[in-house]
Amino acid sequence: MDLRKRTWAEISLDNIERNYRAIRATLPEGCKFLGVVKADAYGHGAVAVSRRLEDLGAEYLAVSCLDEAVELRDAGIKIPILILGHTPAQFVPELIRLGLTQTVTCEAKAIEYSREAASLGTPLKIHIKVDTGMSRLGFLTAGGHFDQGIQNIVSACRQEFLEPEGVYTHFAVADEEGEEARKCTLGQFGLFKKVIEGVESQGITFKIHHCANTGAVVNYKEMSMDMVRPGLLLYGFGDGGRLGVRPCMRLMTHVSTIKYIDAGLPVSYGGTYVTQRRTRMGVIPIGYADGLLRCLSGRCSFMTQSGPAPQRGRICMDMCMIDLTDLPDVNLESLIEIFGERQTAEDLANIAGTIPHELLCSVSKRVPRVYVD
Ligand SMILES: *Cc1c(COP(=O)(O)O)cnc(C)c1O
């Protein structure tokens, strides 16, 4: 089957490799690399990306949930995998059988996990997640929670059938510019170090301390610790041009229909766009069910071989319209780049008022991934 008959995403694993090497080159000696491959590797295909990272010598992978980890183990990925989110305790046998590392975010879960692991007589490998200011997952440790937080972490780590290998935290604003964001990130990092000190002074030691997401890898070298944990950066964004990472996905479609419509005619649902002149209108087979955000309707252009073609009217589920009046060279079957090289996912995300992460992982299952190297 020709995967390119409708709409497809070209993925460059060579660019993933380039980005991996560019990130590696900035890390201190001995610092481990954890590749975040959750959400199907931000839409790039978790199995393919993980295989490449494993071949390159990445020490760790991270996914969001058990099903994502199972997919990787089923595909033969052998390196350690950290589950960043929650796994119900009844799946502890599966975690152990597959050699997965589970995040533990509170004492109650530690107790449940250990009880399940005890019935198998094998310990479960865990990383402790510390909430230092993100107010999402993790042991509360800020302000008045500090002493109790330390006690709870120590108690979690002392559960008989848990093997605490690592401890980590997550930054809220490490990717943002400005003094306020800097203060906030330094504050989170300082608290994280104090928590580690407090826990380790009670005889518990972690082999791997980690905190650096993309923002911290780029902006705060001193926060690499034992391992870094970039996601977006690996896929080519978020370095502000400093590391020279490159996008790895190009979302492509083609012109499937062209028609000439008179001036004054409404286009697409709601008739929100009305033609200003006789218009050469192209229909392209990509819509919001493919991951093209509907909020971009009428606000963006897509790239043709002869320049940008303005998108007209509302984006539908399976298709949308582009104005080819000023692009006479663009014909049936001409290729259209939604995002990629000439317009990056970040450019389009800015127009949509969102972040490139969302555009990349919105590219849906219906869109085949074509590995182009
Ligand atoms: C998603 C995620 C990351 C990666 O974040 P990026 O900003 O894409 O680098 C790192 N750590 C945790 C806990 C995450 O959930």
Q: Which ranges are low-confidence, i.e. pLDDT below 50, for 5 or more consecutive residues?
A: none
Write down the Rg: 24 Å
- Tell me which oligomeric state these chains represent: single chain
Major sheet characteristics = 8 strands, parallel, barrel
**So how many helices?**
11
Remind me, CATH topology of the largest domain? TIM Barrel
Strand count: 20
State which percent range the strand residues make up. Answer: 15-25%
**Structural class of the helices, strands and pairings?**
alpha/beta
CATH superfamily label of the largest domain: Alanine racemase
Tell me roughly what share of residues is in helical segments: 25-40%
Overall average residue pLDDT: 97
CATH class label of the largest domain:
Alpha Beta
The N- to C-terminal Cα distance equals 19 Å
Ligands bound to this protein structure: pyridoxal-5'-phosphate
Our count of domains comes out at 2
Q: Which strand order spans the largest sheet, edge to edge or round the barrel?
A: 2-3-4-5-6-8-9-10
| Shape verdict | elongated
Task: Tell me the CATH architecture of the largest domain.
Answer: Alpha-Beta Barrel
Secondary-structure blueprint:
Elements: E1 8-11, H1 13-26, E2 32-36, H2 38-42, H3 46-56, E3 60-63, H4 66-74, E4 81-83, H5 92-97, E5 100-104, H6 107-118, E6 124-131, E7 139-140, H7 146-157, E8 162-169, H8 179-200, E9 208-212, H9 214-219, E10 227-228, E11 249-254, E12 257-261, E13 266-267, E14 273-274, E15 279-284, E16 301-304, E17 307-312, E18 320-323, E19 335-339, H10 345-352, H11 356-362, E20 369-371
Parallel strand pairs: 1-20, 2-3, 2-10, 3-4, 4-5, 5-6, 6-7, 6-8, 8-9, 9-10
Antiparallel strand pairs: 1-11, 11-19, 12-15, 13-14, 15-18, 16-17, 17-18
Helix pairs in contact: 1-3, 6-7, 10-11
